[in-house]
Amino acid sequence: MNRGKARHRNRERGAGLFIVILIVAGLAALGMTLLTLTSMGPKMSGGLRSQEEAFNAAEAGFNAAQAVIKQYFGDGSWLNFEGHTLTQPSNIDRPLIGTNINPNYFRRVPDEELLLSLDPGKDGVPDYGPLLFFNQTFAATETGATDPRLSYTAFLINDEAAGGAADPNDVLLVVIGVVRSGSRILATTRLEIVLAYVAGV
């Protein structure tokens, strides 16, 4: 009789130990999950902040490009958009070359690669044009110097290059806002806006 009670107590202790082990393992897994989520929080908020800064840079580039274009038409330097659109490198404005897909079409190329294709020598001077702006900085630091972390690039694309009736009075304005840390790009945002010139307006 005593042996039966002893076995029963040992089973209870074994079951209790098993339950304790399960609870400890569950708490450890929960702790690791919380630790991972907590450590990811600053990275995620930093990424969101960089993305917002890139959007702000693209927006600043749009405003600057719009002002420059308005000035060109206002002083008579431009009569329409003909000859002011980017076509190179590699037929960047054409989605197809003949019947083949053009992998260099600007909408198929990520922003970082697109910027590099404009300046393959990485010397800060674009090898192709015309461009309205290239890696143009615009924001001031606390000391009043221009902040090299934030920049924009802006150029025009012939929106009829893919086909259709040519119209030199409208184009696609492409602006890429960039946030850098040294030479490394942290975030980019691309804006594409159709612009049309109407004489006398």
Low-pLDDT stretches? none
Strand portion? 15-25%
Number of beta-strand segments:
6
Helix proportion range? 40-55%
**How is the largest sheet built, in terms of strand order?**
3-4-5-6
What order do the helices and strands follow?
A: HEEHEEEE
Largest sheet: 4 strands, antiparallel
Could you tell me how far the N terminus lies from the C terminus, measured between alpha carbons in angstroms?
Answer: 106 Å
- What structural class do the secondary elements suggest? alpha+beta
Number of helices: 2
* Rg over C-alpha atoms, rounded to the nearest angstrom: 29 Å
Shape: elongated
Number of domains: 1
| Oligomeric state | single chain
Notes on the structure:
By secondary structure, the chain is α+β, with helices and mostly antiparallel strands. 40% of the residues lie in helices and 21% in strands. The protein has one domain. The protein has helices at 2-74, 111-118, and strands spanning 96-97, 100-101, 133-137, 150-157, 170-181, 184-196. Strand 5 and strand 6 (184-196) form a beta hairpin. The radius of gyration is 29 Å and the shape is elongated. 20% of the residues are buried. The model has no long low-confidence stretch (mean pLDDT 84).
Give the structure's gist in a few sentences:
By secondary structure, the protein is of the alpha+beta class. The protein is 40% helix and 21% strand. It has one domain (49-196).
Secondary-structure blueprint of this entry?
Layout: H1 2-74, E1 96-97, E2 100-101, H2 111-118, E3 133-137, E4 150-157, E5 170-181, E6 184-196
Antiparallel strand pairs: 1-2, 3-4, 4-5, 5-6
